[in-house]
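I am still getting used to backbone structure tokens and would like to learn alongside you. To get us started, please write out a protein record for me. Once you have written the record down, we can walk along the chain together.
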Amino acid sequence: MKAIFNGLVLIGVLGSIGKYMGFEFLKENSLWFLIILVAGLVGRDIFARTGHRESNSTN
């Protein structure tokens, strides 16, 4: 799950930065990339607050 949220954050950040670099596709769809970024950040926050640990870690 954490990898999915990290992927969403990465896509959102790249889309948001690309908008300022002048890519027309990213300018037109900047709201979608902002929504993806916020969803990824909120998901990571909720995932961290519930106390989930990495699935490959050992106690």
Residues 2-21 form the longest helix (20 residues). The CA atoms of residues 20 and 56 lie 38 Å apart.
